[in-house]
């Protein structure tokens, strides 16, 4: 393994995670202003959300540094727990009335534009392959086609929701396509782990995601990508005519 590439990749994932964290807060601030929430209410919500995200990242980092996730011989592997809380949160938000109002206050194109970050993720995986710690099947050189979503995201956002354009059907198809590609690379990663589910017996395997800071990939970055698709779909299936004002007690 190339130690220099490995260290650069660690910094890369750390910075990307912080960047996505900042994007979440930026989008929520914009939505809360459009919802006409009071300044103290906006500040309080942003503070709690930011602390919640930081707390989750810290838990993942602590457990990864303690070697908790690096137990692939157990069934099911502890790695599967990294997605549990994010998925529960996503389901909760999908059915939340308040969050439905938040989504109405966010431009539809934003949730598509943000998926362009997946270009960076694919570059990271390719760099990791060159560094000797990411298996080939997880890169765009073989079975991972997720970079297509990242490359098309800027164009899709503009074409679907540009000036005087609202192409709902095309946006729905694009989001479904993006979810399929995301699930594809997720399954490849699972089947590349040295676990009872391993199907790709290669060297290296995908166990790098169990260590810090790469644990943030399955614990935050992948759920973030999935959430943006699902939240975009909820936007598209909701009525545009509904108001996005919300009164908090």
Structure notes:
With 249 residues, the protein is mainly alpha-helical. It has one domain. It is built from 9 helices and no strands. The longest helix is centred in the N-terminal third of the chain and has 32 residues. The chain is globular. The chain starts with a helix and ends in a 12-residue tail after the last helix.
Q: Structural class of the secondary structure composition?
A: mainly alpha
Q: Count the strands?
A: 0
The poorly predicted ranges are none
Distance between the termini: 56 Å
Shape descriptor reads globular
Tally the structural domains.
Answer: 1
Give the biggest sheet: none
Number of helices: 9
The ordered H/E elements are HHHHHHHHH
What is the beta-strand fraction? under 5%
Mean pLDDT across all amino acids? 92
- Rounded to an integer in angstroms, the radius of gyration calculated over CA atoms is 19 Å
Q: What is the helix fraction of residues, given as a range?
A: 55-70%
Brief write-up:
With 249 residues, the chain is an all-alpha fold.
SSE topology sketch:
Elements: H1 3-34, H2 39-65, H3 84-94, H4 97-104, H5 108-113, H6 118-131, H7 147-161, H8 168-191, H9 216-237
Helix pairs in contact: 1-2, 1-6, 1-9, 3-9, 6-7, 7-8, 8-9
Attribute tags:
mainly alpha; 249 residues; globular; single chain; 9 helices
